[in-house]
Amino acid sequence: MDKKVVLTVCNGNIHRSVIAEICLDRELKKHGLENVVCISRGLESRLGEKCNMMHFPDEWAITEPILKELDIIVSPDRRAVQVDWETIEKASLILAMDRRVLRALWDRFPSSSFKMRLFSELVGKCEDIVDCKGDINPETHRQANLRINEIVVNGYSFLRELVDWYSEEDKNLSEGI
């Protein structure tokens, strides 16, 4: 059985999409869904660099306590990866962390725009998850991470529906139905 892929995308695959991926994976495991895997990517590239949120010490010092509170563990070996066509094709569902990212994905990969959504749509909202890049306000980091976790927990049922629907739609398109 092929695994279904849920892709989360932010600007650099350093913070928001990574946290969303970890939270989604945790929720899927909690519900025993082994046929769905979550991955994350970024619009920007940091080619050749092993880069993750720990490489930004001021922001990491602010973010780490809230991640511990939410029981979210980010591997120090984590590497930021840029979104590419192969990953877009594999994904059953693509969740952008904000509207700017969503528009950029639509522009770069228009033939797959039908399976792209705003992350907050999992809970029926049309809101951006704030990009904490360069922001040293602890409350900004706290709210962004809490919101990501909250959306995953409260949007799980809709996530399952979307993954199933988009998987079927993608299959129909590829078969010319």
TrEMBL record:
GO molecular function per UniProt: protein tyrosine phosphatase activity
EC number(s) from the headed UniProt entry: 3.1.3.48
InterPro entries in the cross-refs: LMW_PTPase, Ptyr_pPase, Ptyr_pPase_sf
Start and end residues of each Phosphotyrosine protein phosphatase I domain: 6-123
Gene3D superfamilies (alphabetical): 3.40.50.2300
Enzyme class: hydrolase
Recorded superkingdom: Bacteria
Segment forming the signal sequence: none
Pfam families: LMWPc
Protein name: protein-tyrosine-phosphatase
Organism field: Candidatus Buchananbacteria bacterium RIFCSPHIGHO2_01_FULL_44_11
